[in-house]
Amino acid sequence: MAFPRNSLAGFTLVLALLPLCFSHYLYPQFYHHSCPRVEEIVKSVVAKAVAKEARMAASLIRLHFHDCFVKGCDGSVLLDSSGSIISEKGSNPNRNSARGFDVIDDIKTALEKECPETVSCADILTLAARDSSILAGGPEWEVPLGRRDSRGASLSGSNNNIPAPNNTLPTIITKFKLAGLNLVDLVALSGSHTIGFSRCTSFRQRLYNQSGNGAPDLTLDQSYAAQLRPNCPRSGGDQNLFPLDFVTPAKFDNLYFKNLIAYKGLLSSDQVLFTKSEQTMQLVKLYAHNLELFFQQFAKSMVKMGNISPLTGKRGEIRKNCRRVNTNN
Ligand code: HEM
Ligand SMILES: *[C@@H]1O[C@H](CO)[C@@H](O)[C@H](O)[C@H]1NC(C)=O
Ligand SMILES: *[C@@H]1O[C@H](CO)[C@@H](O)[C@H](O)[C@H]1NC(C)=O
């Protein structure tokens, strides 16, 4: 009896380990020999850009998110339109909104000088997001590396997979689930709205006609709403900017969660985390009261988001220019 059971166990173990021999994992030391100064170089370019404009930290974190939610973290968001490629930059979430592409170009240029055709644009985005968190006062973490770049983009993926600010909570939860992220990841990662800005057009609906009955969103503090209206009128001013966290707009802290408890979340997608589910409400309260826990979970969830279906091994390519696929192969 013992023999067949053991051999079955042994066989099962071999079967379970087999994929390890063939698949390629992301790991922090990926460029240890091929580009030992990669982290230093990315950090120095990001630091310069953030010193010039604090908002760039927010923009770079968001760019990584918009990359990962479309075909995985493969640098697809960086491609310009050309040939058969229709750029994701024109999608609803990105148009007049996604920014930081020049900073990614500057990093790529510096890295091509140091170690040509070695570091992927997808890895650059991941490292830049981590460095941005640190520079804004947020947590740090080790970044698994070894992603490769896509040879295509997906405009429809960008339009459909990235949540919209007026999506319902169930829709947002579904979009995160499709990316392999759970409720804890959703609440923690939404915490990056503790920095950066939103345009009027992304939350105007809440100020005037939230449910199509001509009434504002009553889960938005009405004195805060009154402060927002002058620069976000019923029509016009679409591109006017408002801090996502009006208390400490450039500091990566947990004021975002405290604002939600005070019904002063800017986007509907922010406020629903507190008003539409007991589970997410408890997480909002937890992170509002415990900065350390928020930071720990944010770091974990950023690594998890960065691991969404990477291209590894021989799949994809290392782009020479993050805006274009390589043509000579
Ligand atoms: C939960 C669903 C989410 C929705 C509906 C959402 C939506 C938005 C919207 C509408 C804006 C303002 C864009 C504009 O008006 O130009 C924004 C900004 C931002 N988002 Fe999100 N977001 C979500 C999750 C995330 C996640 C997961 C991250 C990163 C981990 C993130 C990071 C940011 C940052 C940092 C900004 C500010 C960007 C800047 O100032 O350039 N967001 N988001
Ligand atoms: C959400 O906003 C979009 C773009 O402004 C709009 O077309 C759509 O009708 C809104 N959806 C809901 C449910 O309000
Ligand atoms: C509110 O939105 C609904 C549906 O989109 C529209 O029919 C109505 O005219 C709007 N009301 C106001 C006061 O803007």
UniProtKB/TrEMBL annotation:
Keyword Calcium: yes
GO cellular component terms, semicolon-separated: extracellular region
EC number(s) on file: 1.11.1.7
Compartment(s): Secreted
Cystine crosslinks: 35-115, 68-73, 121-322, 200-232
Binding site for heme b: 193
SUPFAM superfamilies (UniProt xref): Heme-dependent peroxidases
Pfam families, alphabetized: peroxidase
GO function terms (MF aspect): heme binding; lactoperoxidase activity; metal ion binding
Residues annotated as catalytic: 66
Residue positions binding substrate: 163
Stored Gene3D superfamilies: 1.10.520.10, Peroxidase, domain 2
Obligatory cofactor(s): Ca(2+); heme b
Domain Plant heme peroxidase family profile, residue spans: 25-326
Record keywords, A-Z: Calcium, Disulfide bond, Glycoprotein, Heme, Hydrogen peroxide, Iron, Metal-binding, Oxidoreductase, Peroxidase, Secreted, Signal
InterPro entries reported in the protein's UniProt record: Haem_peroxidase, Haem_peroxidase_sf, Peroxidase_pln, Peroxidases_AS, Peroxidases_heam-ligand_BS, Secretory_peroxidase
Keyword Calcium: yes
Secretion signal span: 1-23
EC category name: oxidoreductase
Family: Belongs to the peroxidase family. Classical plant (class III) peroxidase subfamily. Belongs to the peroxidase family. Ascorbate peroxidase subfamily.
Stored PANTHER family: PEROXIDASE 72, PEROXIDASE 72-RELATED
Annotated function: Removal of H(2)O(2), oxidation of toxic reductants, biosynthesis and degradation of lignin, suberization, auxin catabolism, response to environmental stresses such as wounding, pathogen attack and oxidative stress.
Name of the protein in its database record: Peroxidase
Taxonomic placement: Eukaryota, Viridiplantae, Streptophyta, Embryophyta, Tracheophyta
